[in-house]
């Protein structure tokens, strides 16, 4: 009984009633930090109606362009509208927005901060965190103070201070951990990248009969001459150093998935035909089940579906020997880590 009376007494106090009526969250809880990526905020007066935001958005119906009605004195604004029920707050729209100031903002994002978009020279150096071993030799070698620094256990190059001397690249003990990225001729570089990847895929497809004989932990390796690829690349861009850099940067990280097909084991059950998401596998009464390599996504669904082990799934990696006269790309292929059907 006494405890009930005590609670009634507490609730009846004037100070309690005042505190209850004026209750507020702590400032630390109410104020989001700068790094918090909220729903995009639209500043429609800056919009140029280019549509880059709608093209970049990965969420259906999350963003669309609208136009205000024209008045007697001026045309109506065209600007993006965000649907918060569809938006996933990825920040892509703000990243690709070309206006300055930005039409779309959504909190601090390392992809859209000014100091990461400065382009002082034709070539800049970046650190691949996936390959970096944090030895810090690049930091000791750097001729510019604080141009290379450590942040959150990652080695970072400050593009606003880097003079692109390349000393860090020469010092780095891990191939590919520091990359020289050309920031000119971007469209030509994209064409060369597609050319090289398509060329490597075609060479690997030609090795199908040898690849499908790989067993267990065995590794199949062979060399591909890059001379033909370089000649084709020169038709797009006549710059051998840039072409060499592109091929090297691609092969340092490129990992191609390889699908093989054993017709002798295939029973034409057609389970793979139904499961293929890209329509790359077809069945005809004349040829049976046939895979079209040009349509194949190498997603491994057919490999995991086939109950007879007719389909093989492998991983290939590459090493470009750019300093050798014959310009070879060394290829290694091994079985994937996915379980193998018996």
Question: How are the secondary structure elements laid out?
Answer:
Elements: H1 2-12, H2 14-21, H3 27-30, E1 41-42, H4 52-56, E2 63-67, E3 78-82, H5 92-96, E4 104-105, E5 123-127, H6 137-141, E6 148-151, E7 154-157, H7 167-171, E8 178-182, H8 186-205, H9 208-211, E9 219-225, H10 227-234, H11 240-253, E10 255-261, H12 271-275, E11 281-284, E12 288-291, H13 301-305, E13 311-321, E14 328-335
Antiparallel strand pairs: 1-4, 2-3, 5-8, 6-7, 9-14, 10-13, 11-12, 13-14
What does this structure look like?
The protein has 13 helices and 14 strands. It is 29% helix and 21% strand. It has three domains: 41-105, Alpha-Beta Plaits; 115-182, Alpha-Beta Plaits (2-Layer Sandwich), CATH 3.30.70.20; 186-335, Alpha-Beta Plaits, CATH 3.30.70.20. With 342 residues, it is an alpha+beta fold. It is extended. Helix 8 packs across helix 11 (240-253).
Short note summarizing the structure:
By secondary structure, the protein is of the alpha+beta class. It has helices at residues 2-12, 14-21, 27-30, 52-56, 92-96, 137-141, 167-171, 186-205, 208-211, 227-234, 240-253, 271-275, 301-305; strands spanning 41-42, 63-67, 78-82, 104-105, 123-127, 148-151, 154-157, 178-182, 219-225, 255-261, 281-284, 288-291, 311-321, 328-335.
Q: Which H/E pattern describes the elements? A: HHHEHEEHEEHEEHEHHEHHEHEEHEE
Mean pLDDT: 83
* Outline type: extended
Give the neighbour order of strands across the main sheet: 9-14-13-10
Which CATH top level class of the largest domain fits? Alpha Beta
Distance between the termini: 74 Å
Q: Give the total of domains.
A: 3
Profile the largest sheet.
4 strands, antiparallel
CATH architecture descriptor name of the largest domain: 2-Layer Sandwich
**Low-pLDDT residue intervals, each spanning 5 or more residues:** 112-120
Strand content: 15-25%
How does the helix and strand content classify structurally? alpha+beta
* Computed Rg: 29 Å
CATH topology of the largest domain: Alpha-Beta Plaits
Helix content: 25-40%
């Amino acid at each position: 009984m006494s405890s009930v009376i005590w609670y009634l007494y507490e609730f009846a106090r004037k100070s309690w009633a005042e505190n209850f009526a004026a209750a507020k969250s702590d400032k630390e809880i109410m104020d989001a930090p700068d790094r918090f990526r909220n729903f995009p905020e639209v500043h429609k007066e800056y919009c140029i109606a280019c549509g880059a935001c709608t093209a970049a958005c990965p969420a259906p119906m999350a963003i669309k362009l609208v136009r205000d009605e024209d008045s007697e004195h001026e045309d109506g604004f065209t600007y993006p509208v965000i649907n918060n029920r569809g938006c996933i707050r990825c920040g892509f729209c703000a990243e690709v927005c070309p206006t300055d100031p930005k039409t779309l903002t959504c909190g601090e994002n390392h992809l859209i901060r000014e100091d990461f978009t400065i382009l002082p020279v034709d070539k800049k150096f970046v650190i691949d965190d996936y390959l970096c071993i944090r030895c810090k030799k690049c930091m000791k070698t750097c001729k510019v103070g604080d141009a290379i620094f450590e942040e959150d256990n990652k080695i970072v190059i400050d593009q606003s201070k880097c003079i692109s001397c390349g000393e860090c690249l020469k010092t780095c003990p891990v191939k590919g951990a520091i990359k020289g990225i050309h920031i000119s001729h971007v469209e030509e570089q994209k064409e060369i990248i597609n050319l090289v990847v398509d060329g490597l895929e075609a060479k690997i497809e030609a090795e199908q009969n040898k690849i499908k004989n790989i067993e267990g932990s065995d590794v199949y390796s062979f060399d591909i001459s890059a001379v033909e690829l370089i000649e084709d690349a020169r038709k797009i861009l006549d710059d051998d150093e840039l072409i060499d850099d592109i091929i090297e940067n691609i092969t340092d990280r490129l990992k191609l998935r390889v699908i093989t097909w054993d017709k002798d084991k295939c029973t034409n059950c057609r389970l793979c035909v139904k499961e293929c998401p890209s329509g790359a596998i077809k069945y005809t009464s004349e040829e049976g089940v046939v895979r079209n390599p040009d349509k194949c996504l190498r997603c491994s669904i057919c490999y995991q579906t086939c109950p007879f082990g007719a389909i093989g799934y492998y991983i290939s990696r590459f090493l470009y020997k750019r300093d050798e006269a014959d310009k070879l790309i060394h290829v290694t292929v091994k079985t994937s880590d996915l379980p193998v059907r018996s």
